[in-house]
Amino acid sequence: MKLYPALFALAGLAYAGTVTASEIAPDDVKIVDGAVEQPLTDSPGDPERGLVSFTGRKAGNCLACHYVESLQDDYQFHGEVGTPLDGIADAYTAAEFRAKLINPKTELPDTIMPAFYRTSGFNRAAGKFDGKTILTAQEIEDVIAYLMTLKD
Amino acid sequence: MKKLLSLTAALALVAGATFAVAELADGYVSVKPTAEDHPLDEVISGYQFRIESTRATQDDDFENPGMLLLDQALDTWSEADGAAGKSCADCHGDDPIVSMKGAGSTFPKFTEKGDHRAFRNIENQINFCRTERMEAKPWKYDKPDMLGMTILARHADRGEPVNVAVDGDAAAMFEKGKEIYYTRYGQLDMACSHCHEDNYGNYIRADHLSQGQINGFPTYRFKWQGVGSAHRRFKGCMKNIRAEPFNVGEEEFLALELYTAWRGQGLPIETPAVRN
């Protein structure tokens, strides 16, 4: 890979990956019975920031695959690939959401849904994404906080 | 929504129905797979998943921007190039639409003899003819000369069913292509099959997922503001899943081209198709 300093600077801004001392690193996460009880960070998730990750095309882009009724008016183009997520907080705990976001393949090996907090086991990941997680630890906690608001 | 056109859907259309039904009703391009081990119940052209105006652009040769490259290639056909002083016409005759019949629907395949024998798609065959027979410089992949001549060869078979051989010595390429098709790549960790087999007919954000068939390539794409090869599309899909793509014109994509062509076996060649 060639070294383009400007690209690197951008990449540093745009992508997750740096794990601070108070966070649990991707490889240290243990998914037990479809749940991860311990939050990945010390600071609690924020649902409003979570919504930003949930809808952002360069972030979680969850909306690419999942429909959410309450976002109908504000966001165009909800996907049909995943389960609609209305009322999903009635079905799962935060610890279960955490496990699904970190790596849904532990439970569902064939799923199309990406692992949002994983750095190992990828095949031909493009250079600027290699070794990086899709979302940061804090973003995972934020998205969980947003999902917890999706009650019927 | 895997069964796209059922009797109910057709009736719903008569009853003045939803956009989705109307969109799928006319010009329906699908065939039943012939191979027993085919993964799809129904093989559907990408044409079917595009909106009315996109299909109308494809249907009208005067509107279809891909036809401009075809016109240029018809001129290039008889222009001598390279040290041997030959044109395509010197070997293949004056009318490419006649002499290229049967080519477009059967590539990629093994061609030539002896040391020159290799598995080629149309692009690689064109460059073989250029370098070996015309002693001319090879054309660059996805540049107008190459795209135009590839369109010409495929267009001679427009309407003919895709008919690639996957037995004999092509079997190893087929298996390789199949393996790639079902392998997860990139940070998003998806395989071609996740989008084009498990989810065709579904929207992923604003995109209406098709079966990823290649019967229309090279294709004019509004997003590209130009024409591109099947390999360019493969590359784009791999980049979208944040993967390091394979190289255009090289073995992995040739294998994938054979395998995806087989998945669309029987679909009519549409080259140059129009997509969004």
Report on this structure.
The complex is a heterodimer of chains A (152) and B (276). With 152 residues, chain A is mainly alpha-helical. Chain A has a single domain (5-10, 30-147), classed as Orthogonal Bundle (Cytochrome Bc1 Complex, Chain D, domain 2), CATH 1.10.760.10. Chain A is 26% helix and 0% strand. Chain A contains four helices and no strands. Chain A has helices at 5-14, 47-55, 94-102, 137-147. Chain A is globular and about 35 Å long. With 276 residues, chain B is mainly alpha-helical. Chain B has helices at residues 7-14, 19-25, 52-59, 66-76, 88-92, 96-99, 122-133, 144-155, 171-181, 192-196, 230-240, 251-263; strands spanning 30-31, 43-44, 109-111, 118-120, 203-204, 207-208, 219-221, 226-228, 273-275. In chain B, strand 5 (203-204) and strand 6 (207-208) form a beta hairpin. In chain B, helix 4 (66-76) crosses helix 8 and helix 9 crosses helix 12 (251-263). In chain B, 41% of the residues are buried. At the A-B interface, loops of A face strand 5 of B.
